[in-house]
Write a structure and sequence with these properties.
With 128 residues, the chain is an alpha+beta fold. It contains 2 helices and 8 strands. Strand 3 and strand 4 form a beta hairpin.
């Protein structure tokens, strides 16, 4: 008897089931598209060869020598902070005078080279 009062009529059950299916499909499609865009961006970034494309390889340091970026010719970098010689490591990509970083944990950052100076995340680094 209680079922009679709490059960939705069949005319409501079909549209509700369709709405649930549509919502699930939309979620999966959105997630798939986002994952595809991220993978495509990473593939685009890894297509760039490193050696010989730019003249920015070498050591870049802040004025107090606390932050040190070593840009290696193979597209890898090592960042030292204070006494930590390998605080962060990852890959970098140079496009013109712009540099993009992605460390091995997935963190990303960017910077720009202007007049022999690297401006990165509020820091000013000069070649040593």
């Amino acid at each position: 008897m209680a079922e009679r009062y709490f059960r939705a009529p069949l005319s409501f059950q079909v549209p509700l089931a369709f709405a649930a299916f549509a919502a699930a499909f939309t979620f999966v499609a959105t997630f798939t598209a986002l994952a595809h865009d991220i993978k495509e961006q990473e593939e685009t970034m890894t297509e760039h060869p490193y050696a010989g494309e730019h003249s920015y390889t070498g050591m870049w340091v802040t004025e107090d020598n606390h932050i040190r970026h070593e840009l290696l010719p193979n597209g890898r970098y090592v960042e030292a902070r204070g006494t930590r010689e390998r605080a962060y490591e990852g890959r970098y990509w140079v496009t013109g005078d712009h540099i993009d970083y992605k460390d091995d944990t997935g963190f990303t950052a960017a910077g720009d080279f202007r007049d022999g100076v690297l401006y990165h995340a509020g820091m000013v680094l000069r070649r040593r």
